[in-house]
Here is the input.
Amino acid sequence: MPSEMPAKIRAETVGSFLRPAALLQARTQFGAGRIGAPALRAVEDAAIRDVVRLQEELGFRLVTDGEFRRENWWIDFVSAIRGVEIVEGSQAAAFDKNYTPKHVRTVAPLVVGEPILTADYRFLAGITQQAAKVTLPSPTRMHFHGGRRTVSETAYPDIERFFSDVAKIYQAEIANLEAAGCSHIQIDDPLLTYFLSDRLRAEIVAEGDDPDRRLLIYLELLNRCIEKRKPTTTVSIHLCRGNARSQWMIEGGYEGIAEQCFSVLKVDRYLLEFDDPRSGSFEPLRFMPRDRSVVLGLITTKRPQLEDRNAVLRRIEEATRFVDLDRLAISPQCGFASVVEGNEITAADQRAKLELVTSVARQVWGTT
Here is the structure.
């Protein structure tokens, strides 16, 4: 694990924040052609300054830009890769009748021109004295929904070449971020938990693939994506079960994937959701290697009710049965706005939950 401060970060956010009304309005105006990209970016800049100020006021030492330049957690990044098409998803992948995630098709060899997130990182790092974190969508997003059928056999007759090109894109993106000074990178991957679902595993079988084999391929792909990072760069992974508009895709604990994921993935830090019984118990943490740190997502972003402090403290104590306290931290269970519309809570709810995260961290570890 990198020797720098991440293991000592005790209060963390997953990345996305509720978009303020001015930003939502500007995005609507931009989509309608009433304002141009420079005007939208100016509104984004102002909103990012505000959300960074909020994080600093509350005591977070690792801040994000709230993902305020994004439509959702993954689509902007993937859309910047030439050779892909974003298409409407199927109802089988729907969260509810109001939100169906879009899917990715690879129609030509994958190419990236300019770095995708480096400019965003530079802006963030330039307006804060705290460490700046960048979130990346997992490469599994480019393959899971449809598997081999989503990748053009003309562009990639050998599927291994596709995975190799994906890994190179992520390696280059991470290298560009590092060159700009970034040393905190988080990969968001709700899709690994899909392997807990009998329904979604059955879909993989129907596509002619073996779920356990595909899971291993994904874990190895993730390792390839990060294998060239600097020793001083901390790579975290966030594993949740879906979060769009306070909905979720999967229920159940990490038990079915924990042993394989925790033993194979060569990340430094795990951000895991444990906000309610839907997420299962802490027992899968028994498989966590002793050189990894774990951020317990104990504060839900899906509901406005504020958690009871004493209950949160008891849950941290319970988690220490499996992971030593000095390797633990606390966070919300996911972002507050995985999609631009955000979860069904208010800005006041968001602030109260963030205040609880930092105050609990101070009480338990003496620092955030």
Notes: The mean pLDDT is 93. The CA atoms of residues 75 and 264 lie 27 Å apart. Residues 5-73+107-141+155-365 form a domain with the TIM Barrel fold (CATH 3.20.20.210).
